[in-house]
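Lab notebook, bench 4. The sequencing result for the construct came back, and we need a structural model before the next group meeting so we can plan mutations. Quick request posted to the team channel:

Model the 3D structure of this chain.
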Amino acid sequence: MQPERIVITSDLLRVTAEKTSRKGFATNTNFFAAMLTPQISAASRLPVTILEWDDTSPFDGKAVYDAFGLDANAANWAKIFAADATDALCVLFLTHVENSLV
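Done. Here's the predicted structure in token form:
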């Protein structure tokens, strides 16, 4: 498969105790994207996008936690960190990463 775009992301499902903790992760992702996008675009000739779970993103990280029957918190992030992917979980990510190099 030839990727159609490059997706930059970070700790996509990681949460901390702070209600606004996702903003810190989004800031990190945006920083790395700003730093790397020109080189990635030049080398790949592909569009570069960001995948983040924040107030402006269509990605629904809470739905991933819901699929596990868990609340979105730091302890449960550790539980799902290396969990096996199911078809139901893959569907939650597919529209965001299909035909992409992540």
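The radius of gyration is 14 Å.
Will bring this to the meeting.
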